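#lab-general

N.A. 3:47 PM
ok so I finally got the sequence cleaned up, no stray characters, all 109 residues accounted for. can someone with queue access submit it? mine expired

B.Y. 3:52 PM
send it over

N.A. 3:53 PM
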Amino acid sequence: MDDLVLHPMKEVKVVVSGEQRKLVTDLLDRIEATGYTIIAITAGKGHGGLQESHFMFGGMESLEMILTVVPEEKVEPILAGLKTLFSHQSGVMFVSDVAVSRREYFGKS
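B.Y. 4:20 PM
back already:
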């Protein structure tokens, strides 16, 4: 069996209110991220204090984390796209180094 090879990529996690989800996912679609995962956050504490979800129709009162793994060159367009959002809305973004075994799944062959 061939040895498993890992390839460096970037993981981007964006935490925003549910009403901002479409803005973030549209941005990821525009920069051609190959996929993303959305996780509903039931509670958390940060700069704005304790945040707890209030489950309403459509989930717009909750916090959500949208995460994706992209090649490094796609991080800057994501930062540029979220700059305006973060200047007017609460939210946070984390960028981490990760390694993936199937590079072609993430936009790099």
